[in-house]
Design a protein that fits this description.
Layout (H helix, E strand, L loop, with lengths): L2 H7 L10 H24 L6 H28 L4 H28 L1 H6 L3 H31 L8 H30 L7 H7 L1 H19 L11
């Protein structure tokens, strides 16, 4: 990969294999998903409730993170097989589905109004819904990473690319487990006043820093080494 290409993408340790058509399709699909997220949340907007702004921000953030993951997948690996397409469709569905569920919960059960009024059970349900959405989104990103890892020989990934792919797989699995745990914790402790979701999210900051540090160390250790040869029967 040329230096100019590396500097323009910020991915100097990856060869970009995706076709422009596939990448453009990812952009278009997630642009539509982002519009759907905004429309779904506007339906349940409460101008006087601060929680609505939180929900809007969380839903848009989930869509952006999912778009970034799918874009990187399409560019780095260029896999456009049925399994890869299915996983990306499921990721879009998770983003839009979370917004629809939150909007319906607010319209039918006045969830956000009850959260704003201090109802602890409603607060637990509110945080649990958001946590479940992020847990599912992270799990689907991990599945995309696993798909790329399974095709590592076909894609001729070098040693550094393999290290980074495996690192992303492990970190996405960790995020999925962390958000699933925070969701269960929020629901189990719904009668208490502890800020459990904030404590759980705060733990992700040092975890992200540790992941970045360990990945950088592994990349330097394996840079230049020859990856494993294909196994023969």
């Amino acid at each position: 990969m040329s230096p100019s290409k590396a500097s323009s993408t910020g991915e100097r340790d990856f060869r970009w294999r995706g076709e422009p058509r596939a990448v453009a399709r990812v952009h278009a699909v997630f642009a539509a998903a982002l519009v759907a997220c905004v429309v779904a949340r506007v339906v349940a907007q409460r101008s006087s409730a601060w929680v609505s702004s939180v929900s809007d921000a969380v839903c848009v953030l989930l869509a952006i993170l999912a778009w970034r993951g799918c874009t990187r997948f399409a560019r780095r690996y260029g896999l456009d097989d049925p399994l890869s397409r299915t996983l990306q469709i499921a990721l879009v569905g998770a983003c839009v589905g979370l917004c629809v569920v939150l909007a319906r919960a607010d319209v039918v059960g006045e969830l956000e109004s009850r959260v704003h009024a201090g109802d602890r059970a409603a607060q637990a349900a509110f945080f649990a819904l958001h946590g479940a959405g992020f847990a599912l989104g992270s799990a689907l990103l991990a599945a995309l990473d696993a798909r790329a890892w399974s095709a590592r020989i076909q894609l001729q990934l070098d040693s550094v690319e393999r290290v980074k792919t495996k690192s992303m797989l492990h970190f996405d699995l960790f995020l999925s487990a962390a958000f699933a745990g925070a969701t269960a914790w929020a629901w189990a402790l719904r009668e208490t006043s502890w800020p459990w979701p904030l404590l759980s999210l705060a733990a992700l900051v040092p975890a992200s820093a540790l992941h970045a540090w360990s990945t950088a160390r592994a990349v330097e250790r394996y840079r230049g080494k020859v990856p494993d040869a294909p196994r023969t029967r």
